[in-house]
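The methods section describes the discrete structure representation at length, but only in general terms. The central task, working out the structure tokens from the amino acid sequence alone, is never made concrete. Nothing conveys this as quickly as seeing an actual entry. For illustration, here is how one protein appears when written out as sequence plus structure tokens:
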Amino acid sequence: MAKAVRLILLAALLEKAESPPFRCNDGEYPYNGQRCCKMCRAGTYVEESCTIPHTLGHCLPCTNGEDYTDRENGLHQCFLCDKCKPGYIMVKACTATNNTKCQCPEGYYCPPGCEECVKCRKRCPKGEVQIKSCSATTDIECATSSTETTDSTHRMDFIIPVGVIIAIVIVIIIAYFVFKFRKSNAFSELEREKESKSSLISVSGEVTNTNPGTSASEMPVLRNERGQNVKSSNLMVGSTNEGSDPGNVPTAPLLQQPENSDVPNVPANIPAPKKPMVKVIDGYSKEELKRIYFHTRDMVDIHDWYDLMRKCGLSDIDIGNIKHDHSGHINEARHQMLFTVWHRFGIREALCKLLDGLWELKLMSIYENVTNELISHKIITLETKD
């Protein structure tokens, strides 16, 4: 009996040793050592892992300015955004997909691994010249004068021949176009001279002067030539045979357009549409509501945005403080204003204030887009007030 037990234990150990290790494919993460789930995309995190292997579980977005994930992950919470240390300036605010980026101010640098910004040198030691300016991560770079002179000489040896070649090409191109222009003018002058000579021939087909030695002033005038010319001129200006008096020239009647022809007839006294009552449906998706609520920052023009925030309950002091805290980052400032309204009044009341503000500012296309999306996700219903 004891021998049989030992054989069973030995077989189990061998089976465990020979079983392949638990591994997941690229873009997946192991869950409880039982199954592999697809990773959530950057900017989100795992709220619930998958129940079916190799599928995506439920992911939730990180919050701009608070936390982030910058790559695909199987994390159950986002990373908190960094805050710039004293002596540093923020060059890029934290988003849902990127951490805060900080760097030293102008005139200071911080090499990799440093703890504090170091002031850049203002000039190089005697006998050296500056070859590179100070940056956020490096100090100025200097080199001996001889090295700089040699490098400059090599550069000039290369630049001068190239500049001469370019100048020659430009001169050739200019000369070519000047030649073409003069040739075209000469050809046009020759054509005008030919036309002047051909005008000496009679319209009726009789040659008035075929002797090239006779001038135009010595040539006889054909019978009725002046009268024909006058008649032709009159026809060209649209006159009749009654003479060349401008008073006899018929004029076309002016077409009169009806007043306000481009404005459609609008019935008067049309009552203004009544603002519907917004009713939030119980059991709505908080994630979808949050997404649609914050998406309005990309839909409203900046000229209407601050009026909308005042309609939502923010004072001018609130708006000014948020703009100052996020100077140069208008999208982040808008997000923080919506975030403040949400936390001050709650998400339901904040949504109603936002929709009421859009209606009162007559931003009807945005109002309809937002309400239609909320209705399609079964978050609200609209009921017309009696």
